[in-house]
Amino acid sequence: MPEPGKKPASAFCKKPRSVEVAAGSPAVFEAETERAGAKVRWQREGSDIRASDKYGLTADGVRHTLTVRDVGPADQGSYAAIAGSSKVKFDLRVIEAEKAEPMPASGSTPAEASGAPEEAPAPATAPEGSVSSPEGPSSAAPNGPAPGCPGVPEDPIGLFVMRPQDGEVTVGGSIIFSARVAGASLLKPPVVKWFKGKWVDLSSKAGQHLQLRDSYDRASKVYLFELHLTDAQLAYAGGYRCEVSTKDKFDSCNFNLTVHEAVGPGDLDLRSAFRRTSLAGGGRRTSDGHEDAGLLDFSSLLKKSSSFRVPRDSKLEAPAEEDVWEILRQAPPSEYERIAFQHGVTDLRGMLKRLKGIKRDEKKSTAFQKKLEPAYQVGKGHKIRLTVELADPDAEVKWLKNGQEIQMSGSKYIFESVGTKRTLTISQCSLADDAAYQCVVGGEKCSTELFVKEPPVLITRPLEDQQVMVGQRVEFECEVSEEGAQVRWLKDGVELTREETFKYRFKKDGRRHHLIVNEATLEDAGHYALRTSGGQALAELIVQDKKLEVYQSIADLTVGAKEQAVFKCEVSDENVRGVWLKNGKELVPDSRIKVSHIGRVHKLTIDDVTPADEADYSFVPEGFACNLSAKLHFMEVKIDFVPRQEPPKIHLDCPGRTPDTIVVVAGNKLRLDVPISGDPAPTVIWQKIITQGNRAPAGPAPGAPEDASASDEWVFDKKLLCETEGRVRVETTKDRSIFTVEGAEKEDEGVYTVTVKNPIGEDQVNLTVKVIGYILERKKKKSFRWMRLNFELLRELSLQARRMIEGVVYEMRVYAVNAVGLSRPSPASQPFTPIGPPSEPTHLAVEDVSDTTVSLKWRPPERVGAGGLDGYSVEYCREGCSEWVAALQGLTERTSLLVKDLPTGARLLFRVRAHNVAGPGAPVTTEEPVTVQEILQRPRFQLPRHLRQTIQRKVGEPVNLLIPFQGKPRPQVTWTKEGQPLAGEEVSLRNSPTDTILFIRAARRTHSGTYQVTVRVENLEDKATLVLQIVDKPSPPQDIRVTEAWGLNVALEWKPPQDDGNTEIWGYTVQKADKKTMEWFTVLEHYRRTHCVVPELIIGNGYYFRVFCHNMVGPSDRAATTKEPVFIPRPGLTYEPPTYKALDFSEAPSFTQPLVNRSVIAGYNTVLCCSVRGSPKPKISWFKNGLDLGEDARFRTFSKQGVLTLEIRKPCPFDGGVYVCRATNVQGEARCECRLEVRVPQ
Predict the structure, then answer these.
(1) For residue 254, how far is the Cα from the chain centroid?
(2) Cβ distance 650 to 684 under 8 Å?
(3) pLDDT of residue 691
(4) Among 231, 260, 289, which residue terminates a domain?
(5) Which of 544, 565, 585 is the last residue of a domain?
(6) Of the candidates 857, 962, 832, 967, which has an alpha carbon nearest to the alpha carbon of residue 912?
C-alpha cells in the first residue's frame, strides 16, 4: 500500500524540454537533478550518447547539459535523460533554415503538448501517486505544486495536469480526490465525470456524504475538480474512474480507494476477506483479463454474518443484516445499479449473470430437500463442511470441483452419508481449494463457491540499515510470516523491478526475501522498503565514496649489477588492481621481471638488474586518480671493496629529540613508518613504556638535552614489542622499520621507544600515541544494528544527526575517546521520534480586497510530517520593508482569513506559515504586493440556466429564487413586477454582497407574472428578467351531453373547462357507470378531443357518464356528469345485407414517378429508377437509343411493387445516351425517358 502523502520521487527538479531548431544550428538540452554529483545518462532512440564532435556532455554540480552541434534532419527524433530510476523523454524537431522562427534552443523553453516529457520511474510499475492520510479529512492529491507555480510542468500529458491518486481512509473518516485540468488552450470548461466501478455515475449519488466540487484558478488557468467522501464506510472501497472531455479531446484516469477498519476477534469482515489479491496459488481463479483483481468480489456479499455490527450510512449502504441476493431477487431490473452501488458491488455484468442463474434455480427441486448455500468462506489451513439433504436417501451423489469429479485421496476429502444428508469435508484448505463446487444427484445439481481467506502476510524480522562503499555488494534481508508470499520492493516510494542491466536481484528463500544490489553507486543511496499485505519494513542505505589511502609508497632504489630490485607499495583496499609503468609505458612481466599482488601489497621484482633497467617506475591503481612513482639507480660495483662503517640513525622530524605525539581515532589503524640508516645494518628494538606509579628523578634520555633531567618523571617499565604477525606487529627492512596496530584500542595509548643499534653506536626516539574525541552511533528501536554517525573524530559536545526517517523511533549512544582510550558506550538514550516542521502552505491567493480588509485563502502543506499540524500564522509587511506584523494573535486552524483594519491604499505583502510541535515551517508569500483598495467591478448577473426559462410552481408550494451576481462596491438591488415596485407581505427579499433571493412562502395564482431585478453600482447597472407561472388544477369540463345513441354505442360531447389552471390542458378522462351498481370504470384516458364515442355497452342497461380534465398539476377535483341515464334498447329489426355492384379495376399504364436525367462518373455502378401503375400488371421494356436492353448482360432490371430499376454495371462513356422505359398492358401503353451522361474523372 503506498505510503501516505508520498508520490514516486523524481531525481529531476528541472526536466529537459522538447525544442524546435533550424537546420545547422546547435540544440541545447538542460536538466537539473535533486542531488549534486548524480550521474545522468543521455539516450537517443534507446541508445546511450557518448561525448564526441557531434554531442557535447557537461555536468556542473546539479546542472547537466546535452549539446547537439550542427543539427541536421538525421538528428530529429526522440531523446531521453535518465538519472537513477527516473526517466524523462523529449523531442528534437528540425525545420528548414528559411522557415525557422527565432526561438531559444534551450531545454528550459516550454514545449507544446505533443512534446511533453513523460517521466516514468524506470523501470516500471510504481504506484501513481499518492494517497491520502487514513486519519481525518485528507486529500489524495499528489504532493506536487499547483500549476502555474515554480516546478510545475506546463506541458501535461493528455488533459490532466494532475491525476487523482490512490487513497486510504479509515471507517468514519473523510478523503478528497483531486484532479487538475489545464484550461489555457480550452475555449469552454471541460466536462468531468466521476464513476465508481465501471458504470456507476457518482453525480446521481451526490448528497451529504458524497459531494462533487469544481473551481477555476484564473492566475494559473487551471480547473480543479474534487470528489469529497465523508463518513467513509467499507462499501466505499473499490476502483474509481475520472473522465474529462472537451469538444475534441478525451482523457481518463483510474484510482483506488482502500477503507481500513479494526476488526475485533469475534467479528467477520467478509468484504476484506473476499478481496482477491492477484494470481497467488496455482489453482487461484480470476476473471478474464484479471479485470477484477484487487476489487471487491460481489459473491462475497451472498452470505453475511450476524455478528457484523458496523454502523452504516443508510443512503449509501444497506443494513448489514440484509441479504443482498434477497434484495436483488425482489427488485426490478432498473434498481440493480443502485443496489450494486450501495453494497459496493463493482462487477455488474457478473452480478446479472449470477442473478439470472439464481432465479433459474428457484424452481422446486425433486432431488434436493436442502441445497448448498450460494457461497462459503473458510480461513487458510482450516476445514470446511459442505452439506446437502436429499429427497431420496438411496440416491447416488457426485461431488465436482470446477467441473471435475472429486476422488477420495487420503485425508484431504472426506465423504459422509447419514440418512438423507450428504457431506463433503475439505481439510487443510489452501488457495488451490478456492473454486466452484457442485453436488450432482441424477440429472439435478446444486452449486456453490468456496472462498479461502488468506491471512495477511506479517513481517517477522525487519530490514536492517546498511552502510557500504561505492562498488560493494549490498544485500537486504527480511523475513515474513508466510512462505512464497507476494512482496514488493520499493526505493524512495518507487517500486523496483529488474532493469535491463539487472542491477537489482530478488531472491526468495522460504520465508526470507532478499534484495541484492551487485555494485552500489551513489545513486543507490536512499530508503528501501518491503511491502506485504500486512505491513512494511523500512531501511536506509548509505553509500560513501571510495577513497584510496596509500599506507606505503614506493621508494627510490640504488642497486648494483646482478642484484635484485624490489618496488613495494601498500594501499587501503585489497581488491584494487593496478598497472606498473616504466618511463610511462606499461611493463610486461617475463622470467626476470615479476609482478605480484597479495592483499593490500603490490610488488614489482626485477632480478639480475642491468644498466638498461635504470628508469622511472610508477604504479597506477585502477579506478583512482593517483600515481606512485620512484626511480631505479644503477650502481656499478667496484672490484676493490673497502668496508664502510656508519653509526645508526633514525630519520624523523623531531627537533631536539623531544617526544612526538601521534593522535589516532579509536578503532582505526595505526601505522608508524620510521626510516633508519646505518652500516652495518642496525638492529631495531620497539618498546612500550608501562607506568609503575613511583615518582623519582629520571635521568636524561639518550640524545635528549641536559635540562630535560631537571623535571620529575614517572618511573616506567618497558615492554618489548617484537611480534611480526597479529594485531600489533613490527616489520623491519634494511632502510626502515614499520610498527602497525590494527584497530587501535584503549590499551594501545602510551609512549613508544624506538632504539636502533650496531657496533658503531645507537640512536633512540620516543613517540606518544593519543586517542581523543567522541563517536556517536544510532539504531532503530527494534533493530540490533548500530550505525556510526561521524567518521571523523568529533571534538564538540553536540552533533546534528541527519538522514533520519521522520516517524521512526531511534536510540543514540556515545563513545568517549580521550588520552586514555576508547570508553565503553554510554547507555542508550530514551527512544525518540524525529519530527520536522511542516512544509509551506500551498496555493496562497487573495480572494477579496476592500478599503480596509484583505481576504486570504490557502491550502494545507503538502508534507505535514509526524508532528501533525497545530495551525497557521498570518503576517504582513509593507512593500520595501522587512518588518512583519502578525495579522492575528495565536494560530488559526482554518485555511482562510479576513485581515482587518488595514491602511487604505497601502501595498502589503502577506505570508502564511504552518506550525506544529517542531516549530514553524517555511513561509509562503504572495507573489505581488496587494493594494488595500476596493476595485470598481462592473455589476453583472450570473443567471442560472433554469431561471432563464419560465419558472413553474404549484399553488401552495414555496418559491425560492437565488440569483448570484458580481460587482464592487456592493451593488444596490431593485425588484419590480410588471414594471411596478415589488411590495407585499407575502413576498420576501434578501440581498447579500454576492446574491439576491426572492422568497414566497405559499404561492398563489396572483403571484404569476414577469419579475425584473436590477443591480446598480454608481452609473453602471445590469438587469435580469424572470417569468413566474403559478399553476393549479383545472375546473371540470362544461355542458356534457349525449348527442346520439345507436346500437351498443353512445356519442358524448362537452366543452373545455372555464379555468385551465394557468397551464395547458393535457387531456380528458371519460368514465361510465351502470345505473344498477354505480361503479365507475374508465373508458378513455389522456383523450384530447371534446367529443367521443363510448362503445361496447350492454343491451338493456342504463349508463351515466362523466369527464375529468387534466393538466400538469393533476385531474380536476370534480367531474362533469350526465344528469339522466342513457338506456341501450333491445333491437327488433332483422339484418338485411347490402348488395354491392362489381367494380372494374382495370387501368392503362401510367408513370407516377418518371425517369430523371443523370450525370455519373465512369466505373461506378449506376441505377435509373421510376414507378408505374396499371391493371393488369403491365409488361416492362427498357431501351437505349432505341435498342432493346433485355439481352445485354451488363444491364439488370428489377420490378418490385411498381418500382422499376435499371442497373448499369460500371458504365463507360459509351453507355451515355437516351434511356426509355415502356410499360404495356391490354388497356394501353406508356413510356418515359431520360438522358444519361457518363463523365471520365480527371
Answers:
(1) 9
(2) no
(3) 61
(4) 260
(5) 544
(6) 857
